[in-house]
């Protein structure tokens, strides 16, 4: 036909060559889904595409099956050309109802630096919020309704008090209903969310509120927000690792820079938190577990009842680890010492942020399988394979 694909359904992965997007694309292919990636290449490399393809082919060869299809469209998801591309995937049958060949969309493409968002809020609102709105309008034109949105634990803000009473850090196990939740009721935008600490965090918060309102207006959608805690590690071959060349501010990439010699030492931000060893606690989730969470969310969305037309899920391990525990895990994996400076707290940090995991387990049938040690071992293997460490 006129450039139309034969009758197969595809998952559209926007930002599919990024750190989480590439791992999720690989998981989708291993689960037998055809994938169409849209990526503007602003924060990724074409070599990622060939790596995903070869890893997926290896998987299917070992299984004795046929590798699903993977396509790459190099363009910004906000470009008008996306409508033309969708037109090639979504076929309108003349007599029957629209037959959509995009059975689901995962949207990873967003700016994600907390610090940069404070300096350039308009760029963040334009890409992360206006971009989301325009994308949803486009998808509704094509009758595509299964949509997964990258959200973040940052929407929980730094809740310092509940019901006016100061809370101890340990109580900050975040449950989805603690905050933005569209379960059948109009979104309650809690006016002062603790201290939503950045424009970046607000773009995620507003994004979820938009999804919740769209779902309330038209419950035929299945809109899912996945709240990532701290994604780290990489798949075992190391081919999809997070490149330490970039300006790193997150803990694992900064420790990676120390290990490859790009930095002399790690600054530990704050040793006076109300935690086991005084350093801050986070919920570090292996990116492979995170990827599997996306596949589970896509697969279960259709079975959700109408008043779950919008639904948010934490993707975390439910276990917290301190900065010192991360450092000692990485030292064990790398069999070398990581020099640290113990300094003051970083602005905007909270001392404790860990996921409640029951909703994802009960409703997505998903839970994490990989440990902090796995994250450290996979990160170290990636650094070695990237030829950046003196063995
Ligand atoms: C983890 C812990 C730091 C660097 C951020 C974003 C959040 C989300 C995930 C997008 C903290 C400590 C860090 C260093 C340190 N991103 N640390 N020295 O801050 O939990 O979350 O990434 O959604 O929005 O805020 O992650 O890796 O920066 O910090 O001591 O050089 O490590 O204080 O306790 P964070 P992080």
From TrEMBL:
Residues 11-304 form the NAD-dependent epimerase/dehydratase domain. It comes from Recurvomyces mirabilis. GO terms for molecular function: UDP-glucose 4-epimerase activity. The lineage of its organism: Eukaryota, Fungi, Dikarya, Ascomycota, Pezizomycotina. It comes from the Eukaryota. This is NAD-dependent epimerase/dehydratase domain-containing protein. InterPro entries: EF_Hand_1_Ca_BS, Epimerase_deHydtase, NAD(P)-bd_dom_sf. SUPFAM superfamilies: NAD(P)-binding Rossmann-fold domains (SSF51735). GO terms for cellular component: cytosol. Pfam families: Epimerase (PF01370). Coiled coil: none annotated. GO terms for biological process: monosaccharide metabolic process.
